[in-house]
Each structure stands twice: as structure tokens, then as C-alpha cells.
Amino acid sequence: MMRKSVHGVTLVELLVVIIVIGILFAVVTPGIRSGGDITDDASVQAALINAGQAQERYALKYNTYYRNGSPENLEAFGLGETPNVSFSFVSADASTYCMQAHHSSDPGSLFSLVPGENVLGVPCSAR
After folding, report:
1. pLDDT (mean) for 15-39
2. Residue ranges of the domains in the chain?
3. Do residues 103 and 84 make contact, with C-beta atoms less than 8 angstroms apart?
4. Could you give the CA distance from residue 67 to residue 37 in angstroms, rounded to a whole number?
5. How confident is the model at residue 124 (pLDDT cuts 50, 70, 90)?
6. Strand partners of residue 87
7. Is the pTM of the predicted complex or chain greater than 0.70?
């Protein structure tokens, strides 16, 4: 008499597969969550570049950089509205300026821009 052999999955093999899936999930999940931070930072940087271009246009017309009031006054010079991004003009005179901005989702993460330089992830006081 021949015995039939039964093939199946043991409990230990099933547990090993579940543990491996759990480890993979733990490794991948933080990268997925931080994707929003990356897009928020990119929107702040793009908004600062746009504001810098508006500053340059203002300076061409008035021979000084814009320094008073709210950033909305630069709309006539091409400053577009960026949702959830707040600007502040820290300093400005006839030859230079420093603007900083942050996203509403992370007010502590400041980016700044001065003429002729790249946007940096630091406040104006650290430049």
C-alpha cells in the first residue's frame, strides 16, 4: 500500500512570512509618510524663487528692493499666490534683501532667499 504524501505549509513557515512582510512594511512606511514634507518644501522653495523674481522686477522699476508692507504688494510685479505658504521680508535696502517663507504644515521649517544665491533651508538670521 502506497501512502499519499501531504504537502502543506507549516505554522512556522507562515510565521516567518508574516514577520518578513512586517519588516518590509516597517522599512517602507516612513518613506511614504515623508513624501508630503518633500512636496511642501518644494512649494516653499518655488514660491521664494517667484518672490525673488518679483523683487528683481520691482528693483528695476524703483532702483531699490521692496521692503515695506505685505508680500501681496508685489503681485503687480509677478508674485503669484501660493496656497499654505507664508512670506516675510526680514530686511531690504537698495542693494540687497532677505525674504523667508514657510509652509503652514511646518512653521518651524524656514527657507530664505537673498539676491544671487540659492534658496536655503535656514532663516535669514543664519545667512
Report:
1. 79
2. 36-126
3. yes
4. 30
5. confident
6. 101
7. no
